[in-house]
Amino acid sequence: TLKFKVNSAAQKGDVNKDGRINSADALLVLQYSVGSAKLSSEQITLADVNNDKRVNSADALKILQYAV
Asked: Which pTM value belongs to this model?
């Protein structure tokens, strides 16, 4: 079971802060992990859903699993 903590402005996993956790958030995480997108410090916190202090494909996978 995935558990996402609520941030003051957005929910963990809602990287683009649109109020939904979906494939768009996972895509943003993947783009960041390969250097083709930039994230704010808040977005990095929201993107690190497995709390390992890194934002990478593992986080994108968790976001996708939660979304479906």
From this structure: 0.85
